[in-house]
Amino acid sequence: MSASVVLPLVAPRVSESQRGVVVVESPVMRRLLDRLRAAATVDRPVLLVGATGTGRSFLARLLHGMAGRDKRQLVEVSCLSAPLPEFWDEAAERARGGTLLVTDLDRLDEYGQRDMHCLLAKLATQARPPQLVATALPELDHQQRSGRFARALYDRLAVLRIDVPTLRERSEDLPALAQLLLTEQAASHGRPSPALTTEAQRLLSGYSWPGNVRELSNVLWRALLWTESSTITAQQVQQLLPASQPRAEEVRLLLGTTLADAEQQLILATLRACDGNKQLTASRLGITRRTLYQKLTRYKKWS
Questions:
Q1: pLDDT of the chain along its 303 residues, tens only?
Q2: Would the pTM of this model clear 0.90, i.e. be above it?
Q3: Which residues touch 57 (CB under 8 Å, ≥6 apart)?
C-alpha cells in the first residue's frame, strides 16, 4: 500500500513560509514528486509542461520551497505580457539566489525568445543566479518541431523537463484531492467542511475534467457555497457538472484517404469530443489556436 501525502495541488499562492504540498496516490504523481525533489537539488532550468488547469505554477512554487529557497524571492514573469529586455534583467536581479518563474512560455514570440537567450547568457555569469523554472502548454512541442520556437532555446530551458499529468491521468488522487479542496475552501470562510458521499465521489471520478484541477476546484467551490448540509450528495454534484461531457470518439479512415482529408476528420472529431472548446482542441492536437482557427476557416469554405 502506497503512502498518501494528502495536500492541495490548487492553492491561491504558496507563501514564502509555506513549502506547499500535493495529493499523491497515483503512480504518475509519485513519479512527478520524485522528479521535483531531484530538480530541487540542482540549479539547472526546469520546464513544467501540462494542460490548462493542471497546477503548473503551483508545482513551480512547490519546487521553490523544496529547494530551500522559500526564504528568498520567487519572481514571476508572464510571457503573455511581452516583457521588455530591461524587465527580464530586473526580474532576474530581484530573484537572485531564489527562483525566476517564467509562465506561458508557449506564448513567447521570436523577439521574446531572443531576449531570453540574452538573459540566459547573463545568468551564466552571476555568482548566485536564480533557478529558472518555466511553464508551458503541450503545444510548445509542436512549436519547437515546426520552428516557431527556437530549438536551441528549448534545449537550454528543458534541461529538466517534467510533464504534468491531467486529472484524468491521476484519477486515484481525485477522492482525497476533492475532499482536501473542500476542507481548505471551507476553512478560508470559517465554515465546517462538508463530506462528499461515496456516490458523489464516484460521480466526480466518472467525469472527464477537461479543465483539470482548476475545474474541480470551481465545482467544489460552488457546491460548498450552495449547500448548508454537512454532506454533499451525488445529486448536488450532478447539478454542477455540464449536461454533456467531452466524449471519446473514434476516427476511422478508409485506405486511400488523402492526408488532407485525414487531418480534417481528426481535427473535427477532436473538436466535437471537446464540445467545441478550441483551446482544449488545439492543446490535444499539439497545434496553436491560431493554426486551428485557420484550418477550421478553410474547412468551412470547402463545405
A1: 333 333 333 332 322 333 456 788 899 999 999 999 999 999 999 999 999 999 999 999 999 999 887 678 999 999 988 778 888 889 999 999 999 999 999 999 999 999 999 999 999 888 889 999 999 999 999 899 889 999 999 999 999 999 999 998 998 999 999 999 999 999 988 888 899 999 999 889 888 898 999 999 999 999 998 888 889 999 999 999 887 554 445 677 777 788 888 888 888 888 887 778 887 788 778 888 888 988 888 887 554
A2: no
A3: 76, 101, 103, 135
Residues ≥6 apart with Cβ < 8 Å to 53: 167, 211, 212, 213, 214, 215
Whether the CB-CB separation of 245 and 208 falls below 8 Å is answered with yes
What is the three-class DSSP state of 274?
coil
Whether domain 259-302 has CATH 3.40.1030.10: the reply is: no
Q: Buried b / exposed e across 199-215, counting CB within 10 Å, b at 16+?
A: ebbebbeebbbbbbbbb
Residue 16: φ, ψ to 5°:
-60, -30
Residue ranges per structural domain of the chain? 27-163, 168-240, 259-302
Superfamily of domain 27-163, CATH level 4: P-loop containing nucleotide triphosphate hydrolases (3.40.50.300)
Cβ atoms 59, 164 nearer than 8 A: yes
Output the DSSP codes for 108-140.
Answer: --HHHHHHHHHHHHHHTT-SSPPEEEEEE-THH
Nearest one of 14, 49, 51, 12 to 32, comparing CA atoms: 49
Length of the chain: 303
208: helix, coil or strand?
A: coil
Residue 231's DSSP bridge partners are 195
- 168-240 maps to CATH 3.30.565.40: no
Q: How far apart are CA 199 and CA 179, in angstroms?
A: 13
